[in-house]
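The protein record minuted underneath.
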Amino acid sequence: MKISAITFVLCLIYSTTNYSQNIPVHKIIENLSIDGNLSDWKTPFLGPFVIHNSGKSGTQNTFVSLSWNDENLYIAYRSTDSKITGKVQKKDSPIFNTDDLVEIFIDPDGDGQNYVEIGVNAFSSNYDMLLKCISPVCGGWNTTMSFDITGLETVSKITAEGYNTEIKIPFSSLKTVKNGNFTKPKTGTKWKGNAFRIDYGNTTEYLALQPYKSLKYGFHQPEEFTIFEFIE
């Protein structure tokens, strides 16, 4: 789908946003259709994503929009991609090693433990992973791909410019995360997390909506997560 003139202007405005600001999650009333068609998205797109450990511009643009209603968290990505890499794969395949994809990390209580990672490639294949602990302080790297978000919906749609991706996460499913300390968000609630993309095009790039200050390599640095703020 071609970017409309209005959306293009919004993208330009938000591309100049200071990356130290909170990421707004906008309240909506309706339920969004998860079909890869972004024409029904009225909340602004943020970006473009940058190289996660340097803040430098990516080779190809990525924008994301986040919204919520009383039941679900919604995330939409618009990814420019001139050379899409990947294929349809089984649920919970390690597509982060091979495929162009977008990712979302969410840590509702912000303690850097028991946070959720979701990845979706350009062919709608997805995985959902629970990161119980990655720090020596809490026992070292401990993850599980057997974790499942009940009601998770993900769809990507290849376009002339690249691919669009939509994700729906029911809040009810996050209550099952042991020691996740999840509570249903309300206006003013703040979560920790970030939005990412791995681009395996001509040059492999690891991109983030907000870069990390530490300059370390790798997305799994919960102490560097930004803030998602639920607003009206």
